[in-house]
Amino acid sequence: MRLPWVRRLGLLLLQSGKHHVNLVANGVHTYFDLGPEKLAEKSTTPLPVTSAIEFNYAPDFRVKQPSGSMVRKDCQETGDKE
Asked: What is the mean pLDDT of each run of 10 residues along the chain (82 residues)?
């Protein structure tokens, strides 16, 4: 079941490597800063709920052949195995 408020991050055009994503939960707030030095301090004003995510992406360039074997996309024409 897909939740209506969940958005997917398209990776089709993303190159291999390290990436950073900053998420902001629209319409949500907190009164506690999630920074380690401020966890116990209550804010007098609402703070946005955010998350910084770092990830490494390496797309899978293999494709399944009719025989069931896996080959790299760049080897399909020659039939070379990975």
From this structure: 70 84 89 83 91 85 64 49 46
Q: How does DSSP assign 15-61, residue by residue? A: PSEEEEEEEEEEEEEEEE--STTTTTPEEEEEEEEEEEEEEEE----
From 13, 15, 22, 23, select the one nearest 56 (Cα to Cα): 15
Tokens of 38: 């401020």
Quick check: 79 and 71 in contact, CB under 8 A?
A: yes
Q: How far apart are CA 47 and CA 41, in angstroms?
A: 12
The residues spanned by each domain of the chain are 17-75
Reported pTM: 0.52
Q: What is the pLDDT of residue 44?
A: 92
